[in-house]
């Protein structure tokens, strides 16, 4: 005997969808500024501005993947062969975003180190003007994405990128001011390296979070032994086995378990109490629980994995 608890799917799947309008606004704003920054980087010869444009490109790409994942997820809901929809697309998009952003950061650092030997002159005036525009665009995008970042790993990825880009724009502004006042050309590659150093740790954390979901590891904030012990403490439960806890997508923790009941235990009451325990103590709202009456030998088949 078993039971599933599935009403949570829609609310989590719609977390990113609720912010779709904000995503589109941020996508358009950053896309326009990315083109401006890239053109200005080649015009001024600024590596720092180029790194900021590259970072902004990954912002735009990441938001675009988030929008694509939202669309694909909602379209997949009607396909009976996709019993969990396409929720994992969000996680795949976040992982791809982390990989791309890491590549940009590494390229910028390598190019900056190469320039330290003979830093080229840059046009500080246009560099400053475009960096200020980039800063304003990132402040606006930061405000648009902030609330959604708490609900979705993909939105959190885009949010982190915009945060890094915002600080990068401040660095480019500082480098432009320093160059215009002192002619210290090394400021450009120094800021480029600083931007790369800031991006990489945050990117790796995002990638690690995405990989953790993809390998179906238990959520970091949940101790599986505590989940086991809590289910074992449910009145009428004699034994808990084949317990699995994993994350389907951002904010959607899933559990499955086999519960062997004591003789005479009422199945409905055990199921209800177990569901309530998972919901109240661990915020697990989707659980598939198989009840195995203690008096029924061989109720649970052998599972090799």
UniProtKB/TrEMBL annotation:
Which keywords belong to this entry? Ion transport, Membrane, Transmembrane, Transmembrane helix, Transport
Superkingdom of origin: Bacteria
- Per UniProt, residues of the Cation efflux protein cytoplasmic domain are 219-293
The family this protein is said to belong to: Belongs to the cation diffusion facilitator (CDF) transporter (TC 2.A.4) family. SLC30A subfamily.
Which SUPFAM superfamilies would you find in this protein's record? Cation efflux protein cytoplasmic domain-like, Cation efflux protein transmembrane domain-like
Q: What is this protein called?
A: Cobalt-zinc-cadmium efflux system protein
Asked if Ion transport is a keyword of the record, the answer is yes
Residue limits of the Cation efflux protein transmembrane domain? 23-215
Gene Ontology cellular component terms for the protein in this record: plasma membrane
Which spans are transmembrane here? 23-42, 54-73, 85-110, 122-145, 157-179, 185-204
Q: How does it sit in the membrane?
A: Multi-pass membrane protein
Compartment list:
Membrane
From which source organism is this entry?
Answer: Micromonospora citrea
MF terms in GO: zinc ion transmembrane transporter activity
């Amino acid at each position: 005997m078993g039971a599933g608890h599935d009403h949570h799917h829609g609310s989590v799947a719609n977390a990113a969808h609720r912010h779709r309008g904000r995503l589109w606004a941020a996508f358009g704003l950053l896309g326009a500024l990315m083109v401006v920054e890239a053109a200005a980087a080649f015009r001024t010869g600024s590596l720092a501005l180029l790194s900021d444009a590259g970072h902004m490109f990954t912002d735009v790409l990441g938001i675009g993947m988030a929008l694509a994942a939202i669309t694909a997820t909602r379209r997949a809901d009607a396909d009976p062969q996709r019993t969990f929809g396409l929720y994992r697309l969000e996680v795949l998009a976040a992982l791809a975003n982390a990989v791309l952003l890491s590549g940009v950061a590494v390229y910028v650092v390598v190019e900056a180190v190469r320039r330290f030997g003979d830093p080229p002159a840059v046009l500080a005036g246009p560099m400053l003007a475009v960096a200020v525009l980039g800063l304003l665009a990132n402040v606006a995008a930061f405000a648009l994405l902030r609330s959604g970042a708490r609900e979705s790993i993909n939105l959190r990825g885009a949010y982190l990128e915009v945060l890094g880009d915002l600080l990068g724009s401040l660095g480019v502004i500082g480098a432009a001011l320093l160059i215009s006042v002192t002619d210290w050309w090394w400021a450009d590659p120094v800021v480029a390296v600083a931007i790369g150093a800031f991006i990489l740790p945050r990117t790796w954390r995002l990638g690690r979070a995405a990989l953790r979901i993809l390998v179906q590891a238990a959520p970091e904030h949940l101790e599986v032994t505590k989940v086991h012990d809590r289910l074992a403490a449910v009145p009428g439960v004699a034994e808990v086995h084949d317990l699995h806890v994993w994350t389907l997508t951002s904010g959607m923790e899933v559990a499955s378990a086999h519960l062997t009941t004591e003789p005479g235990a009422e199945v409905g009451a055990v199921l209800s109490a177990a569901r309530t325990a998972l919901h109240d103590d661990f915020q697990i709202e989707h659980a598939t629980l198989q009840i195995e009456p203690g008096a029924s030998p061989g109720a649970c088949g052998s599972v090799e994995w």
